[in-house]
Design goal:
The chain is mainly alpha-helical. The protein has five helices and two strands, in the order H-E-H-H-H-E-H. A two-stranded antiparallel sheet has the order 1-2.
Length: 113
């Protein structure tokens, strides 16, 4: 249980860092980042597998790079559900998805989670 809480907090921190690095990707505060992290986690559990299955042929053709577009769709869907989380354009969502993966990778490397 403690591990899940730590991962949730670190995911919210990654969202906040991404919001500072990517223009047009805005999260109001840490509370909003925590809620956004929860919403993204739920969408990743429910929507992302379906999207990956539907986009499997194009994902194979692009050698997996289309996964960033699927991640952007999940981010954009989460932003659409919340008023305190905004993404201006689709290109911003794709860039934010790439930056978020890098930030989460760095955080998991530093904190060993």
């Amino acid at each position: 249980m403690f591990y899940i809480l730590i991962v949730w907090i670190l995911s919210a921190v990654a969202l906040l860092i991404t919001s500072r690095l990517v223009k047009g990707f805005e999260i109001r505060d840490f509370k909003a980042a925590m809620i956004a992290s929860l919403v993204i986690g739920l969408l990743n559990a429910i929507l992302r597998p379906l999207l990956l299955l539907l986009t499997l042929p194009i994902n194979i053709l692009t050698l997996g790079l289309f996964t960033f577009v699927v991640n952007a769709i999940v981010l954009k869907a989460a932003a659409g559900m919340m008023s305190s989380f905004k993404i201006d354009r689709w290109m911003t969502a794709i860039i934010a998805a790439i930056v978020l993966v890098i930030v989460q990778l760095l955080i998991s490397f530093v904190f060993n989670v």
